[in-house]
Amino acid sequence: MGRLQKKKTSSTKKKNKQSSAGNAAPQAKAASSIKKVSLFAVSSGESQKGPGLFQKKVSIKPRAASGDPQKRYIEKSLQFLREVKVELKKVTWPSRKQTIGATAVVIVVVMIISFFLGVVDIGLSSLIRIVLQ
Question: How far is CA 41 from CA 27, 38, 45, 54, 58, in A?
Fold first, then answer.
């Protein structure tokens, strides 16, 4: 799961739509001049198969022995933790000021809702007492 594909931006999509609406001849020239680039290295003996840009990544990392499930479990756990570390580097963490502000909003909203529910509870309790007497 190591690498992620980059998404096209909306401006790139618009340009592609505009160029497809134009003449076919300039588009054919542009298509012939575009060189496809693979993210993964392909050895000189192999050729690129199919129209796709991406080739299947071949793992050269030695794997744990298939007979030992404990080693496989440890290897999978370590791989998961590596991926978690990579993903956490991508997170945009809130500043201290933002965190304090969001916490204050949550505390105020909880207090307002608890006050409202307390008033409703007292009102319903007194109503039930009146009905039962």
Answer: 29, 7, 12, 10, 10
